Amino acid sequence: MRALVVDDSRAMRNIIAGILRDIGFEADTACDGQEALNRLAAGPLPEVVLLDWNMPVMDGFTFLVEARKKPEYADVRIVMVTTEGEIAHMVKALEAGANEYIMKPFTKDVIAEKLMILGVMPE
Amino acid sequence: MSLSATDFDYIRTLVMKRSAIVLEAGKEYLVESRLIPLAKREGFSGLEEMCAGMRAKPSPALVEKVVEAMTTNETSFFRDLMPFEAMKKQIVPELIAARGGSKCLSIWSAASSSGQEIYSLAMLLRENFPALRDWRISLLATDLSQEMVARTKQGLFSQLEVNRGLPAPLLIKYFTKEGTHWQIKQELRDLVEVRQMNLAESWKLMPQLDVVFLRNVLIYFSVETKREILGRVREILRPDGTLFLGAAETTLNIDENWTRVQIDKTSCYRPGAAELRKAA
Lengths: 123, 280
What we know:
The complex is a heterodimer.
Chain A: E1 2-6, H1 10-23, E2 26-30, H2 33-42, E3 48-51, H3 60-68, E4 77-82, H4 87-95, E5 100-103, H5 108-118
Parallel strand pairs in A: 1-2, 1-3, 3-4, 4-5
Helix pairs in contact in A: 2-3
Chain B: H1 5-19, H2 28-41, H3 47-56, H4 60-71, H5 82-98, E1 104-110, H6 116-128, E2 136-143, H7 146-154, E3 156-158, H8 159-163, H9 168-174, E4 175-178, E5 181-184, H10 186-189, E6 192-196, E7 209-214, H11 223-236, E8 237-245, E9 258-263, E10 266-271, E11 276-278
Parallel strand pairs in B: 1-2, 1-7, 2-6, 7-8, 9-11
Antiparallel strand pairs in B: 3-5, 4-5, 9-10
Helix pairs in contact in B: 1-4, 2-4, 5-6
């Protein structure tokens, strides 16, 4: 299974990608929403995108809205991974098509359990 | 400094007497990881000084804190997921069909820690079974630790705790944000009765039950205590009731009066002679 980690912090990209690789994913990374859209367009599509909210160039929410406009990406699960911890942000993200929401800080278990909820877990 | 054999024996005996939980040789690391922070909080220089102080002048309050620290288990919302899927897909629909006359349903989360398991069950029922709205639902949570009982009653969880295993739509629907924490709404807290209870001592005022979640707790007890507890569960579980144990636990070679039932990727137990039965 493939995962795409989108975060402007290199340290955070490495942490999340490392956790995903430990779980058994092939993990790719992108620095912002625009780069992530380019990755999706180039393919192959990941099963899941782990997406920061606040990023330069294109933020995570804009990426989410753009990705959900394209029916060909409908099966890609999108998980927000963000410091934004208010209910209003969660509602906004879920209504725009996010499948799950993780608040930073998190642990490996948090990511594994959320992916299990979504049914995206390597055998 | 590592834990001395004398101090480990002292803690092991204390925990055994108070909770019937067996700390086998090799669990020294567990004692250190749980009790060194407690020793510091209580003003001792370390575990050795705390053990010496307790031996010289045992304080009931400190003894209780030690036992609580040693018996508090890790938990998360919808832990291991599969038992909850089994509840949703099979167990609860069967119970709704069987209990249509009395419209009563009772579920017990034993060793419920800070309450994630019982509130997961409350949310599962609310989300998936609107037909139960006019039923009398009894959700009972018990734990050895008074601190955990108080926490469960309060229903207050840290951000890390609500991150773990709880689908975001349920967090939005059933919790309110209180500063840096999240509190489960009153409507769900009202569904849950929380009591302090030691599984190894006599069980008082236990109702007849339809489902028992007794997960990841038997592993801490001796075989004799496990057998006693499983026997008592059989006495209060209805004949068509269901027992869930932890993924690494079994009734096999402990109490043969259970039938193991496989439901998808999980298994549960029903009162009756032991045999493997695959659910239809």
